[in-house]
Design a protein that fits this description.
By secondary structure, this protein is an all-alpha fold. It is built from 14 helices and no strands. The model has no long low-confidence stretch (mean pLDDT about 80). It is found in: Cell membrane.
């Protein structure tokens, strides 16, 4: 099967998954307690006014009519109107999405840069102090709650040492790119340093569990590959140990690592809720929390659909990347 046919097949599968997400999200709104009209109206409102608002929101229609109207608007980008601000949901979600993507990608970069070398060192120096140190680090990383780690980092590096800010996102990465394309390199550099200064602590907080997971996966994969026949044959041919270790063994080890990185990237997009709340990072996580507290179901629905679509797209890209790392992986 060619790459184009594979992508088409997986895209069709992905559409069904997204449709399932949309259906589940709509069902959660239906079974959730409370009336959306209560968000807009005071408790002592006149019953006629209340009924008029319900008709304007379409809540008086049968559920199947509401469902099909909701689904029909999604392909055109119509996710409805926010109950609290009466603005398009799609515009609000897209305005918050870049901040969450920046945080998720930054956390992934931090995890990969630290975890893969640490996993390689742990596997090649088995039972040495470096191996024990990497094992302890991964255990602590998996066991530490993100919200507690974020608070501790703020207390230590922001309050006590005054090295990093406690919150906010004064500049986005899109601004840095725009300034660089406009040849405003001085402004772009200042914006980049400000961006790095503000995103460092949130990225470390969000990526700590991810770092520990990749470290353990890389270590186990390296140990498994080092014991295979082709490694002994490569060494018998006189190939340098560095070439064997990093060109052949590590490359084959990266197959499951890439899988986890792709899946966890989608998880980080949805799992950044707590980290964004701790650092007041203005992304989808903060929008989801605020929408839930305000019972703004259209915004909550739109945010969850975007997160679900992010999972699907990430999985498709990860599967397509397999063949580049390992020619034995086919698109069948």
């Amino acid at each position: 099967m060619s790459l184009s046919r594979f992508l088409l097949k997986r895209s069709l599968h992905g559409l069904f998954v997204v449709w399932g997400v949309i259906t589940v999200v709509f069902g959660l709104r239906v079974i959730a307690p409370g009336d959306p009209a209560n968000v807009l109206l005071p408790p002592n409102v006149d019953p006629e006014v209340r009924q008029q608002v319900i008709r304007e929101l379409g809540l008086n229609e049968p559920l199947y009519v509401q469902y099909f109207e909701f689904v029909a608007g999604i392909p055109t980008g119509d996710l409805g109107l926010s109950l609290t601000t009466r603005t398009p949901v799609a515009a609000r979600v897209l305005a918050k999405l870049p901040a969450t993507l920046e945080l998720a990608v930054a956390a992934t970069v931090v995890a990969v840069i630290i975890a893969i070398p640490l996993g390689v060192i742990s596997a090649t120096r088995r039972h040495d102090p470096a191996d024990y140190g990497a094992t302890v680090f991964s255990l602590l990383g998996i066991s530490t709650p993100n919200f507690w780690l974020g608070v501790m980092l703020i207390i230590l590096f922001a309050v006590q040492l005054d090295m990093f800010p406690t919150s906010r996102r004064p500049v986005g990465f899109d601004t840095i790119v725009a300034q660089a394309l406009a040849l405003q390199f001085g402004s772009a550099w200042d914006a980049l340093t400000t961006w790095l200064w503000h995103i460092t602590l949130p990225a470390i907080t969000l990526g700590t569990y991810f770092t520990a997971l990749i470290t353990r996966l890389t270590r186990s994969g390296m140990l498994d590959e080092l014991g295979k026949t082709y490694v002994r044959a490569s060494r018998a041919k006189g190939l340098p140990e560095t070439l064997v270790r990093y060109k052949h063994v590590l490359r084959n080890t990266l197959i499951p690592v890439i899988t986890v990185v792709g899946l966890q990237l989608g998880t980080l997009i949805g799992g950044a809720v707590i980290t964004e709340a701790v650092f007041a990072w203005p992304g989808l996580g903060s929008l989801i929390i605020n929408s839930f507290n305000a019972r703004d179901w259209p915004v909550l629905q739109g945010s969850l659909i975007v997160v679900g679509a992010g999972f699907v797209v990430t999985n498709i890209l990860v599967d397509a990347f397999y063949a580049y790392l390992n020619p034995q992986v086919t698109y069948d």
